[in-house]
């Protein structure tokens, strides 16, 4: 806006005959017509729109009174300039909220894929369950063959103290010896047959038992993997769905304000158009024309449809609630099998696992690297942990919407953290563990699509440095490098020799699209025993 236009408007309104009009003149000239556009957009839009509308009505009044036509023309031009600057901001905000809704909806949809093909996993689990049950029933069927071992034991017991009477008679003695020999020959033959049958039965039973233990382990491992994936998907989905619904609430509230402000600005445009026409024709603006401008403008283009997203139904609830080797699990899975004691003895509990994410730079951890079951009360050697109870200090965070808060990175599947603005070099996150910890890796999960993809608004970090500190003031580099360009939900882990510290800092220098924001969805650290 030209300075003379602002002065003209101020002069025009200063000539008002009432103190209220003079107040409008002072407000419009100082806070509306002289404030940069970006600052104006940060002010309360509804109040500023109302001030512009009052200004337009004042211009109409002075045009109809024939008061200072040249000043009215300049004031109209100045007001229209500001309206023209504000209208694109409304459309930009609408586009922003539409984009946020799409991102939130995609995050919900992407949760299901994090667990892999759960439907196929469920089928595979049922196959493993069936194979184990069939094996155990076959093992039980072999119990009858072990009857030869019982018969062999009874035969040995019956002959254990067997005595023979041999008469001291020349004629009967040979016959007595023959009878004893015949009886022993029969016992010998029976013993050989029963021993062989017993050994064969025992070998077959042992082989079957070993096979069944293996089938049981396969089933329980599949059960644990399926259970972990189901829990991860459900947790991710619940988190993402909550974010989606909160985004919808925030967006609809913002859109209601944007639609109202849009209608006010269009109202102002209409009044200014009539004022300009009247000035050009040396006429006045009729009351009907002023009333017609009051008709609300259509805001159909300022609506956003948020489809209803149902809760995910991936697995039976019993899969989540019944952990292997617990009483309810035994009752549900093994109560119909006869070898319950042997099965309970062979049962293996699920290892504790970290939340499932899409791994792109490194493979999933082996069970030996993961945390053990917390119920067992055993400390891990090294295990992944989120900074759940750590204090985090960011270089900045986007405060326009609370869902980009830095504490979001403590939870997988959420909106994540985003810097406020613009091209921070470096952007950083400082982590205070509260005490000295030993660390040998950190992992990050990205929250948006890869660089250059459609709809990508927050881009994967590129160059970084990771530091440690004993006091949070003096920092020592641990490792630096360039991270991979991750897609949405992609994960990258950075490993290094174990180091001890209480404070840790991740500095981010740029990203793969030179986007002005830096972002992370989730961060966790691999901690080891001191």
Summary, kept brief:
The chain has 530 residues and is an alpha+beta fold. Helix content is 52%, strand content 14%.
Walk me through what this model shows.
By secondary structure, the chain is an alpha+beta fold. Among the domains are: 3-114 and 237-296, no CATH class; 352-528, Jelly Rolls (Sandwich), CATH 2.60.120.260. Helices cover 52% and strands 14% of the residues. It contains twelve helices and ten strands. It has helices spanning 3-14, 19-32, 37-42, 45-65, 69-114, 118-141, 147-159, 172-281, 287-293, 317-321, 327-334, 340-346; strands at residues 358-359, 382-385, 391-394, 417-418, 427-445, 463-469, 476-482, 490-508, 519-520, 522-528. Strands 1, 2, 3, 5, 6, 7, 8 and 10 form an eight-stranded mixed beta sheet that branches. Residues 1-8, 10-44, 353-380 and 449-457 have low confidence and may be disordered.
Keywords:
12 helices; alpha+beta; 10 strands; about 15% strand; about 50% helix; 8-stranded mixed beta sheet; disordered N terminus; Jelly Rolls; about 525 residues
Q: So, CATH architecture of the domain at 352-528?
A: Sandwich
Tell me the number of helical segments per DSSP (H or I, 4 or more residues long): 12
Rounded mean pLDDT score: 78
CATH topology term of the domain at 352-528: Jelly Rolls
Structural class: alpha+beta
Sheet having the most strands: 8 strands, mixed
Shape: elongated
Please write the CATH class name of the domain at 352-528.
Answer: Mainly Beta
Q: Beta-strand percentage?
A: 5-15%
The Cα radius of gyration reads 40 Å
Q: How are the elements arranged and paired?
A:
Blueprint lengths: L2 H12 L4 H14 L4 H6 L2 H21 L3 H46 L3 H24 L5 H13 L12 H110 L5 H7 L23 H5 L5 H8 L5 H7 L11 E2 L22 E4 L5 E4 L22 E2 L8 E19 L17 E7 L6 E7 L7 E19 L10 E2 L1 E7 L2
């Amino acid at each position: 806006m030209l300075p003379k236009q602002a002065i003209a408007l101020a002069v025009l309104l200063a000539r008002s005959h009432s103190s209220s009009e003079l107040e409008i003149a002072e407000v419009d000239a100082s806070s509306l017509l002289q404030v940069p556009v970006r600052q104006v957009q940060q002010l309360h839009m509804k109040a500023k729109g109302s001030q512009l509308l009052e200004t337009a009505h004042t211009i109409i009044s002075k045009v109809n009174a024939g008061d200072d036509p040249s000043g009215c023309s300049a004031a109209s031009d100045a007001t229209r300039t500001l309206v023209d600057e504000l209208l694109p901001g409304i459309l930009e905000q609408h586009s922003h909220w539409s984009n946020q809704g799409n991102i939130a909806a995609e995050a919900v949809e992407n949760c299901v894929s994090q667990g892999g093909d759960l439907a196929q996993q469920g089928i595979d689990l049922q196959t493993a369950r069936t194979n184990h049950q069939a094996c155990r029933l076959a093992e039980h069927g072999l119990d009858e063959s072990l009857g030869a071992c019982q018969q062999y034991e009874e035969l040995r017991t019956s002959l254990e103290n067997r005595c023979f009477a041999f008469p001291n008679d020349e004629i009967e003695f040979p016959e007595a010896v023959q009878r004893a020999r015949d009886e022993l020959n029969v016992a010998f033959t029976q013993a050989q047959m029963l021993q062989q049958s017993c050994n064969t039965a025992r070998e077959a039973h042992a082989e079957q038992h070993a096979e069944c233990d293996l089938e049981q382990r396969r089933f329980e491992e599949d059960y644990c993997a399926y259970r972990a994936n189901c829990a991860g998907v459900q947790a991710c989905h619940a988190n993402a769905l909550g974010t989606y619904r909160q985004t919808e609430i925030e967006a609809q509230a913002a859109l209601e304000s944007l639609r109202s402000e849009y209608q006010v600005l269009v109202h102002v445009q209409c009044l200014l158009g009539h004022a300009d026409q009247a000035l050009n024709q040396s006429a006045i603006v009729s009351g009907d024309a002023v009333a017609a401008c009051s008709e609300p403008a259509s805001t159909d283009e300022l609506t956003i449809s948020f489809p209803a997203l149902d809760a995910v139904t991936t697995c039976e609830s019993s899969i989540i609630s019944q952990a292997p080797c617990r009483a309810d699990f035994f009752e549900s899975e093994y109560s119909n099998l006869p070898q319950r004691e042997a099965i309970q003895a062979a049962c293996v509990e699920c290892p504790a696992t970290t939340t499932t994410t899409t791994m792109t730079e490194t493979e999933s951890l082996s069970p030996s690297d993961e945390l053990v079951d917390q119920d067992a009360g055993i400390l891990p050697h090294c295990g992944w942990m989120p900074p759940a109870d750590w204090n985090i200090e960011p270089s900045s965070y986007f405060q326009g919407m609370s869902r980009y808060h830095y504490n979001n990175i403590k939870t997988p599947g959420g909106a994540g953290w985003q810097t406020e603005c613009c091209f921070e070099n470096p952007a950083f996150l400082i982590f205070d563990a509260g005490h000295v910890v030993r660390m040998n890796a950190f992992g990050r999960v990205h929250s948006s699509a890869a660089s250059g993809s459609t709809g990508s608004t927050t881009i994967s970090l590129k160059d970084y440095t990771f530091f440690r500190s004993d006091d949070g003031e003096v920092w020592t580099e641990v490792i630096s490098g360039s991270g991979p360009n991750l897609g949405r939900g992609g994960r990258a882990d950075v490993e290094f020799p174990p180091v001890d510290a209480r404070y840790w800092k991740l500095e981010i220098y740029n990203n793969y699209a030179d986007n002005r924001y830096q972002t992370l969805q989730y961060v966790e650290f691999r901690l080891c025993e001191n």
